[in-house]
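# step 3/5: fold
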Amino acid sequence: MRHGKRNNALGRKTAHRKAMLENMACSLIEHKRITTTVAKAKELRKFVEPIITRSKADSTHNRREVFKNLQSKNAVTELFREVAPKVAQREGGYTRIIKLGTRLGDSAEMAMIELVDFNELMLKETKAKTRRSRRGSKKKEAEVTTVAAEETPVAEEAAASDPTSESTAAEEVTDKTESIEEAPSEEEKKEDSNEEEKKD
């Protein structure tokens, strides 16, 4: 009978379940986010959060206790080096479970479990979250359009009132035409040379 047994066996024997949770915990620590079923994600949260709490105090004893649960040197190093400093101020709740809907093959409920302090997008949203009303946004749009409408004639007037730019352009054109007129053409050079030969 199953009296008072509150853990979800996940359809596995103890050794298989423990090995699976160890592997998932290592993946979560190394990649900061994994996708799995909701049931596995809930069990993983119960398994990995005490391990993260231990990592806050970096001692030989804590490293050995964590390694006993994770069985991966890379994961232990990552946990104590990168994860622990970020979660140092947090009292608990290091992971977040986000439901993703059902899986196509067997309609299992899927979820994404991630470390809370490593999701930069959600951290930015929570910091920059402010309350805005719809009325204010319409007024702002109207102000932007009026400012844009006012700026365009001002730019045209500035261009019209600045005669220096037009005069310099006109001077450049006249200089070019004068230089073209001053330079004798090849036919004129030939005629001049023929005249000189006749004189000789």
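# step 4/5: annotate
Strands lie at 33-37, 95-102, 109-115.
# step 5/5: archive (pending)
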